[in-house]
Write a structure and sequence with these properties.
The protein has 229 residues and is of the alpha/beta class. The chain has 2 domains: 150 residues, Rossmann fold (3-Layer(aba) Sandwich), CATH 3.40.50.1000; 62 residues, Orthogonal Bundle (DNA polymerase, domain 1). 41% of the residues lie in helices and 11% in strands. Strands 5-4-1-6-7-8 form a 6-stranded parallel β-sheet, sandwiched between helices. Strand 4, helix 6 and strand 5 form a beta-alpha-beta unit. Helix 1 packs across helix 4. The radius of gyration is 17 Å and the shape is globular. It binds 2-phosphoglycolic acid and magnesium ion. Specifically catalyzes the dephosphorylation of 2-phosphoglycolate. Is involved in the dissimilation of the intracellular 2-phosphoglycolate formed during the DNA repair of 3'-phosphoglycolate ends, a major class of DNA lesions induced by oxidative stress.
Length: 229
Amino acid sequence: MNTCLAPCPLVFDLDGTLLDSAPDIHATVNAVLRTQDVPPLSLDRVRSFVGGGVDILWRKIILATALPPEAQGDLVASFMARYHHATALTRLYPNVLESLGVLADRGHPLGICTNKPLGPARAVLEHFGLISLFGVVIGGDSLPQKKPDPAPLHASLAALGSDPAHPRGIYVGDSEFDAECAANAGLPFLIFSRGYRNTAISDLYHSAEFDNFAHLPGLVEQHAELARA
Ligand SMILES: O=C(O)COP(=O)(O)O
Ligand SMILES: [Mg+2]
């Protein structure tokens, strides 16, 4: 198991972890479906499709509608043209800002590793005034690999100063993709239980779960400490 000497690099997922962004993703999906005369999908349905990035999102939408598979490229392009500005319905989960502030003040290098494409990921972080807190933002299109491949998480940690030969740090996320990514990377994983999961937490790799960001700084210290022991 990796060890984590303080300060411990902390890498965060974005959609369903720091941000409740499903309402904007839902509205943007339905705006694209409208151009195709396809009836809208429910928020719950679209939320259940989030986590693997935009290609997987649209593959699932195509399966759920009468759209032809060969339309995938055009649908993704039409979605991406709208996605950069899709922030009006997105909210930070309660206590995210305060929690990130405490962790940054304690000297933990902070990063983002998301399957959301880099452009919209940076745009929404800028919208909430958060971008300067993060030493690195790796998006779903930053590397050839996406989560659950460990490469984006390893790249995030390396950018935060972790030795690539011995990656150290903690990943914080919400989904199956994140749990598998952390397991593949051999890193502690703290799972936010109010995000966009389709699987019981007990069936996912995790080190601890939390439902309120007010509890995260304590959990981080506990796990950084455990990893040191
Ligand atoms: O947008 C997605 O599908 C996933 O994004 P996330 O990796 O930040 O959860
Ligand atoms: Mg997520």
